[in-house]
Amino acid sequence: MPTSGGRPGRASLYCSPACRQKAYRTRQTRDSGTVHDLISDIERQVKALTPEHPEPFYSGVKTLSSSVGRLHHLAREAIRFVTRAPVTNPDEAEAARTSDEWSFAALVEPYRRELQVHCYRMVGSYDDSEDLVQDTLLKAWRNRTTFEGRSTLRAWLYKIATNTALDFLRRNDRRPQQYGPSPIPPTNDVTPSPFLPWLQPFPDEDPETAAETSETLELIVLAAIQHLPPRQRATLILRDVLGWPAADTATALDMTVASVNSALQRARPTLRAHLPASRQEWSRDTNPSETERALLDRYMKAATDGDTTAMAAMLREDVRITMPPNPLWFGGRDAIVTMLKQTFDPSSPHYFGRWKHLPTRANGQPAVGGYVQRPGTRVYRAQVMDVLRVEDGLIAEITSFEPHLFPAFGLPLTVTD
Fold this sequence. Notes:
By secondary structure, the protein is an alpha+beta fold. 48% of the residues lie in helices and 15% in strands. It is built from 16 helices and 9 strands. The strands form 2 sheets. Strands 3, 4, 5, 6, 7, 8 and 9 form a 7-stranded mixed beta sheet that branches. It has a two-stranded antiparallel sheet with strand order 1-2. A hairpin with a 2-residue loop joins strand 1 and strand 2 (7-10). Helix 6 packs across helix 7 (126-142), helix 6 (112-123) packs parallel to helix 8 (153-171) and helix 7 crosses helix 8 (153-171).
């Protein structure tokens, strides 16, 4: 896929199957009308495309991608009620080996979501996890005749996905980097977290099933995992996150049990060293509390109103903002409020425009999609996705991402008043 405006990342042309939260479905129904209305709108947008003029053509395709993403999201919601259950009988190996393309797709489709989550934990990038799960299913199809049923179909797919991710990490040496100086001197002795330019958010799934995955998708945990060497990373994810026995992990990674146990013993201290003292365990409450929801509402209102006083009241003194893949960071409440005053004040040369936000959730955390109406324009365009880490009722960290993944979260790329 081509880059968007020369920036890292790809423009998503379709929605992820991960977009399954009931709140998303409600909002999509409200914003998009019926499926027939959405299809008609897509038809109108396609007919309006003008390839002869590059800039209008790019703008039209970008708008079209948002509509197609929402339609794909609705289609995924429909198919999850009719997709057959995973095969768990002793004949699943025979079923996989003798399947035609469509039957094989029906066998593996129920595992797509969890395989993508697994790939995302391995590489930390939503875009790359989509590519990796697609590669995984393609490899499974091409090698289906080698599946002998010595493990479950699920375990076989996980082995392919894990090794596909390891191959990717061998080709792409992704090591945490250090941020440079902040444009505004940090306050409260705040230091930056490691710079992970490839880091991207991941849409939450249904609240009913999020509890078993969200705590190990939290950005602070995911960032800590990225410090592990690839094979240690895979070992820790299979053993401690998925709960696989050492023997099954050894089979999946073509290692001995002793090697698996050794890798795990080295991985655990490294992971703990990169987690805050308050987050030494996996588990946490993944259900958004009333306090958290109220805080999110206040955050959106303060940004819309340009109210820096209200914003300051929600921030911890040692709060930090990072903006991957951009090497920008701001540390400390006073420094961040100074930055916000410049962007919220219409008389400032750094004034950005009027803001509007839509709530969502990413990585088991509250998040907002931010839209900006630039001076002299009428449309609010997708600008940034802020993922909030909340501790003790205050915002401890904000990770701001570029907006090309909005359709994966069921969010449009433009909104109006």
